[in-house]
Amino acid sequence: MSKDKTIYVCDNCGYRTIKWLGKCPACGEWNTLKENNVAPKTAVAEKNLARSQTKGANKALTLSSIADLSEERKDSGISELNRVLGGGLVLGELILLSGDPGIGKSTLALQMAAEIAKKERVVYISGEESAGQIKMRAARLGLKGDIYVLAQNDLSKAEEELKALKPSLAIVDSIQTVYLPQVNASPGSITQLKECTERLMFWAKDWNITTVIVGHVTKEGNVAGPKMLEHMVDCVLFFEGERHYQYRTLRALKNRFGSTDEIGIFAMEEDGLKEVLNPSQVFISERSEQAVGSAITASLEGTRPILVEMQALTIPSFYAQPRRTASGVDFNRLLIILAVLEKYAGVKLSNQDVFVNIAGGLKIDEPAVDLALLVALASGYNNQALDSDWLILGEVGLSGEVRRINHLKKRLNEGAKLGLKKAVVPKSNLEDKNILSDCPLKLHGVSNIAQALKILF
Ligand code: TYD
Ligand code: MG
């Protein structure tokens, strides 16, 4: 008889070793190897055999002879969520909703559950809160749908209840707190997480229950679960936001049934998450007229343009190495823009502390907002405000050139909708005559940053 053996598995990449190591030799991460019990070989073989008997096809089929899957989407009742999912929930879809603790995952899951429960049966399995607590939360959120709530950590017991209730949606909150009793590992360990998720995959695929798994990640992002689970699920949603701001963005990091470009924007309020249907308005609403170190730009998130206010503050530094702080924009991108600004526009920032922020706490990693960042920095340094009806668009190259960006028209229209009157855009974009016809803004094409600064200041 073989005994259970202990091995060590890397949280980050899944590398296995029989000896503990401080650094994973495969991915180079530190402190990611965690103890893990493996079942005896015979048990694994038995399980594989059972799998092979229940799953998979024996005969290959040509595409034309395969029956069509219905592309029917279930409305989640929350349009920002539908947008990120690619139009709604798909029958039998397995979704991982991940994010930092306290960001609002349970709130979002409960709100969705209540919406769907107005029409269909929904079971909310909670390993974190008692049924009473969930009821209290639902009441506070003013939710109407009647959800079945099961406060249970043992997934095999939850499964019995699912068999009886046959819901169309199940929510498991959270994967770190549930377990299967027959698995020889504690809740939250890699073995449990994998086995439990496999079980949930079975619910989703064989019983056609759309299943949402809630999973926490820590600030370092190196908790075992969600990273490893990403391979097993159809869709990975990531809920993020700065703690101090009320805005939260929902992104799909992986989506078998839709694109991963769209984001959903929510505001966490007293009575739950509210959809932000007009993000541009929200993100530039607090801008003051004639603000120094501020420039408005339009970022394209998926198919939707969003106006944001780029803010920059510069002050003489007392340090040998001046400080640079970037929130919302990529730090390395900031360093490049600072270097370009100094070299090609003579704005001497190398002895200044520089702080950059996107108002509202949004994160943007699109090069089309480069020029706005540069303009905000120049405005901050020169103590000169821009007219408040400028829209600044363009990617900045290493030799100070302003480069073409995509979807210019969409961005301009969004600016016009919110009352902007004129725009600095890359000159190369204006070769496309479509842009010029019925353009709602007065356009100024520029081919380098010096031209842009000359027009603006
Ligand atoms: P929660 O959904 O419990 O987070 P998670 O499941 O991701 O850990 O929400 C956590 C925070 O949200 C909590 O600190 C309080 C805040 N919150 C509100 O501001 N308003 C609300 O209506 C709710 C339900 C929560
Ligand atoms: Mg929670």
Mind explaining what this structure looks like?
- By secondary structure, the protein is an alpha/beta fold.
- The chain has 3 domains: 5-44; 72-277, P-loop containing nucleotide triphosphate hydrolases (Rossmann fold); 281-456, Ribosomal Protein S5, domain 2, CATH 3.30.230.
- Helices cover 29% and strands 26% of the residues.
- The chain contains 13 helices and 23 strands.
- It has helices at residues 41-54, 79-85, 105-117, 131-140, 155-165, 190-206, 224-229, 279-283, 331-345, 370-382, 408-417, 433-436, 449-456, and strands at 5-10, 16-17, 33-38, 73-74, 89-90, 94-99, 122-126, 148-151, 169-173, 210-216, 235-240, 247-255, 263-269, 272-275, 294-301, 304-316, 324-327, 352-358, 390-392, 395-396, 402-403, 422-426, 442-446.
- The strands form 6 sheets. It has a 9-stranded mixed sheet, with helices on both faces. A 4-stranded mixed sheet has the order 15-16-18-17.
- Helix 9 (331-345) packs across helix 10 (370-382).
- The model has no long low-confidence stretch (mean pLDDT 89).
- The structure holds thymidine-5'-diphosphate (TYD) and magnesium ion.
- Thymidine-5'-diphosphate binds next to helix 3.
- Magnesium ion binds next to helix 3.
